[in-house]
């Protein structure tokens, strides 16, 4: 999308320069050069307006089919945002991830960038996330999250948390989408560490009877600091896929110990 907007900006710039005679000699060359970024920003603003307006065509109810226009708009908007924020995503091990969309992905959590990076990097894997319920109240964006298969989690209400876990498991079992979750529960601000896991997250894999895809992200905290100012390289690595048969007879705390060790050894 960023490339499309850039091409459109160049064409628009050339047309304005030609018909408005902005550059009649080489001394005026600065005018179209200065106009180009302004036009590009204009396209970004139009995209944002369209993003917001289109959200009024739906509601915040969860979906049973993520292959819809709202998910396409969300994905294209996330990729446009990352490109504009000068974030370059590098993925390692994506070939390990099941193609059938029936898995639970777990990862460390070091930045608000993490879900956007993971969903776009694994776009073809039909991945959605269990996210804090507050995000579903964000204007426009909350509706896109719901229609893309994401599940809201109330971290302070155990009964509602159980409902979210059951919904996430149902999404996987019913073939709606794969689910991702951050077992730490919160953004970890201490580099090279993991917060204690909330092992209830692994009930999703147990209930859905699916493998666990263990992953880590790196440098997303720096991307958060550098966005729009300078380029940042962020990394998503799929470390291991744990087959369901390996966890079928384990308790969630035992699964958590296994996943914790895999992740902490990597980071």
Question: What characteristics describe this protein?
Answer:
46% helix; single chain; alpha/beta; 7-stranded mixed sheet; 10 helices; 7 strands; 267 residues
Describe the model.
The protein has about 270 residues and is α/β, with parallel strands linked by helices. It contains 10 helices and 7 strands. The protein has a 7-stranded mixed sheet, sandwiched between helices. β3, α5 and β4 form a beta-alpha-beta unit. The radius of gyration is 21 Å and the shape is elongated. The mean pLDDT is about 90.
Compact overview of the structure:
With 267 residues, this protein is of the alpha/beta class. It has helices at residues 2-19, 30-54, 69-84, 114-121, 141-147, 158-173, 203-208, 220-226, 244-247, 252-266; strands spanning 87-92, 104-106, 127-132, 151-153, 178-181, 212-218, 232-242. It has a 7-stranded mixed beta sheet with strand order 1-7-6-2-5-3-4, with helices on both faces.
Q: Would you spell out the secondary-structure blueprint of this structure?
A:
Blueprint: H1 2-19, H2 30-54, H3 69-84, E1 87-92, E2 104-106, H4 114-121, E3 127-132, H5 141-147, E4 151-153, H6 158-173, E5 178-181, H7 203-208, E6 212-218, H8 220-226, E7 232-242, H9 244-247, H10 252-266
Parallel strand pairs: 1-7, 2-5, 2-6, 3-4, 3-5
Antiparallel strand pairs: 6-7
